[in-house]
Amino acid sequence: MNRRHFLVxxxxxVGVAKFSTMPATSAxxxxxxxxxxxxxxxxxQARLTDFEYQVMREEKTExxxxxxxxxxxxxxxxxxxxxxxxxxxxxxxxxSGTGWPSFYQSLPDSVRTKEDNGFFIxxxxxxxxxxxxxxxxxxxxxxxxTGLRHCLNGISLVFQPA
Length: 162
What we know:
There is one protein chain. By secondary structure, the chain is of the alpha+beta class. The protein contains three helices and nine strands. It has helices spanning 3-13, 41-47, 50-58, and strands at 76-80, 86-89, 93-94, 102-103, 111-116, 123-128, 134-139, 149-152, 157-161. The strands form two sheets. Strands 3-4-8-7-6-5 form a six-stranded antiparallel sheet. The chain has a three-stranded antiparallel sheet with strand order 2-1-9, with no helix packed on it.
């Protein structure tokens, strides 16, 4: 493991901050915009496993290398597990070497971001724009054409083959 790999892995693993004004289970983002899909805490817990709930609603992170989607190579689309919104095309997926599914670009109007300054690291969180489910983080060390790496929790996604 080289230093960059360690730092990237550390940046993806450490905990994340809550929305500045309301938790992710709320119907309102910190920016004041409302989610199209709203479920109560009890409804989310009934719909998701305990770990899915922790990642998607409490902004935890799955362990590196644990996602079955990490090695998914087929053509298709990655959807939000919380509301089925198409988020990422398989054509933008690439091997980042971090242990999490990585993409250099989301589909238009599919995600929203917010600052995460927890644990002395400045990062950008990425969430589903329709239901607010936590997907992962965006870093600026990805490939062209965007130079971005959307480092995602596979547990927050569902793959739909083409």
